[in-house]
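Journal club prep, notes for RB
We'll compare a predicted complex against what the paper describes. Inputs for the NAP case:
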Amino acid sequence: MSGRCPLCLCLTASSLKEDLLQVERYRAHIDAVELRADFLDDPEAAAAARFPAMAGLPCILTVRRPVDGGHYRGGEAARRSLLHRLLGAGRFAYVDLESDLAAPDLEADASASGCAVIRSLHDLDGTPADPAALLSSLPRSGREIPKLAVHVKGMEDLARLLPAFRCGTQRGRIVVGMGPHGFPTRVLAPVLGGSLAYCSVPGMDAAPGHVDPEAMDATYRFHRVGPSTRIFGVIGDPIAHSLSPRIHNAGYDALGLDALYVPFRVDDIAAFLRVADALAMTGVSVTVPHKESVVPLLDAAEPPVRRIGACNTLVRREAGSGWTGHNTDVEGFLAPLRRVLGGSVPPGLRASVVGAGGAARAVVAALAGEKARVLVLNRTAARAASLAGEFGVQWAALDGNGFGRMAEFSDLVVQTTAAGMEPDVTLDPATGYVFRGHELVYDLVYKPPETVFLKRAREAGCRTVGGKEMLLSQAYAQFRLYTGRDFPREALGEI
Ligand code: NAP
């Protein structure tokens, strides 16, 4: 396992035939397979020696115990006997043996059949104190490949795990961070020096956090990245739904840039900034709930960040230097609006902004900067009052009285709340407002592409703008800040 990091599909069906179907389905994206014989029905497991020849790809043999997250129920003696028979009869490229399994007979079987040993340790409960030292202690000889798979529960754990990618034997090392916070280790394995990365068939995740082979390849550029790749990313919580990796990575692909954009589920920004140092990152997108809490950690802030008190983009010249905060939401909101309005926002435009959260701050700041006359409405009226007070605009509660006042501020209606966003797509935050058809209506929610609020506006004859336009505009601005290049818009397919 030297050189390029192979992408390995974990096979967890109950029959060899079903496993083979998955190999055929994903063959174009994968370099190796792991036959999880602990998932096979008994007669199938007994016949598994023929699987490497059927698959036609390097094959790892694994019979995982329940204590390590596996499904083998037959007891330890039966497990060893199965491993012995399969290693004797099959042509497996690798066998996964646990670190506490003293089994010279199985090592001899492996050696006799030209099969390398992956020496693994799984910690399903957490990340140990010194993962690098632990990984180094695993191999029983320099011919073995140590594998450490641990449950990463937060950024502190991830920061501690990353140095393990620099340890191992001359045969390599496999480091896996399980769970949502460990996700970056899966897609960064080829960049950080990992010797193998695992993926699963969608819906059959063999371990927490597995990604499907197509996404590993297409979204995370698995076969186009390596040790020289620059790492960018987005931080938030939750983050799995973010479309930003698809947008930025498609841009790197189109321009042939050696870069990778990774989502980080972040519970602790200070710990994440240490991770960013370890990964030599120079550009980071910031989303809910960190846009405001990141501001005190900045070394410098562009004027929109100071004005709004929120930052969605961190940039630095080189790894190790200080972070400058930018806010591309303001320009991201304005660019589609200007396009629809024929190039600019007319001064005195009367606008209602529904919501008073983080997104509303950027919208109100943008509209106030364009000399629009703004009314902020919010479910929690005090938040509307506070936001309006900061920017010197009008406010109202999101109730019958407020809906009445919206009529005076109805050239533009901007919906900035999370209401109507997946999964609860039936929510409409302003059912009491009746569109009259002359309004331009802009909804910041981008999933679904048309909320019930926006549909109601369109059906009343209004011109509408969906949240995807802002999402893309702010991402294009970030792309330029990170890479110095314009985003290749024509290359972006449907997202
Ligand atoms: P946030 O800071 O948590 O604010 C949420 C806002 O939504 C608050 O004003 C809240 O009112 C209101 N709200 C939530 N549920 C509501 C409901 N059922 N009825 C009425 N009001 C409700 O979130 P945020 O950062 O502003 O994000 C809000 C939305 O904008 C999200 O859907 C986000 O995806 C979207 N967004 C899109 C883009 C883009 O590029 N298109 C950029 C940024 C944000 P209370 O104060 O009463 O709780």
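Talking point for the session: The first strand starts at residue 7 and ends at 11.
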